[in-house]
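Morning F.,

Quick status update on the modeling queue. The single chain you submitted on Monday has been processed. Sequence for confirmation:
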Amino acid sequence: MAKSNSNLCAVVLLISILIVAVSAGSFYDDMDISFGGERAKILNGGQDLSLSLDQYSGSGFQSKHEYLFGRFDMQLKLVPGNSAGTVTTFYLSSQGAGHDEIDFEFLGNSTGNPYTIHTNVYSQGKGNKEQQFHLWFDPTAAFHTYTIVWNSLRIIFLIDNIPVRVFNNNDAAGVPFPKSQPMRVYASLWNADDWATQGGRVKTDWTNAPFTALYRKFNANAKKVGPNSVSTSSINDDQSWSTQGLDAAGRNRIRWVQTKHMIYNYCNDRKRFPNGISAECKTSRFL
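Structure tokens below.
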């Protein structure tokens, strides 16, 4: 009986490993290097990807496919030490002047000071929907999972499956919402010391170059579009993202994040928007 249980555990473990491997995918299969040449490196048989920045160039990659709605997960380990002036990104975007975009940007800081997590939503070429956070952990010490859920009802930003922001579809109130333009997944590491750290007051220290950020375990449970495309999904064909919202536990978590860790909310910036806040700011941000 003990031997039978041991064999069963071994089979379950093997199946679990295979499921993770299938659902996580490979950077060789899913991504193209978009700029930076050898500064972007696919490692470990396609399971990991590193981006580097030096005084000559940053680097980046983009998905081979376009998507219209889905859940997108990526594990990141950010630039350690003095990362002031650097910006590491993971985002969705379409192309053109009236593009849509959903952003995670990680703004570096001087040693001992926290990263700023910068989120934004563009629709029809218009953004100005920024919310910023400081994290409750060191994002350079280990990998953490950053997730964008995008469906026709809302956009949810999650960190380690904890919701930090919801942007609801308020199209009926005249607020543009990304709903018709397919988007690719993008990631990059670049220099933005004219604005990224303390409003540009702290510059990039190039004596610390090259700066390196690490990516792994990308998964797109999403509707792939384009010629000969079929929807992609996880191994169990889970489509719960298509109507995903926040349950009671999620609402409690997002309240905690936004009460304790939010450092900027465009909805509260009346100096920047003297003519009045946008319509979506007048509804609950926790639903």
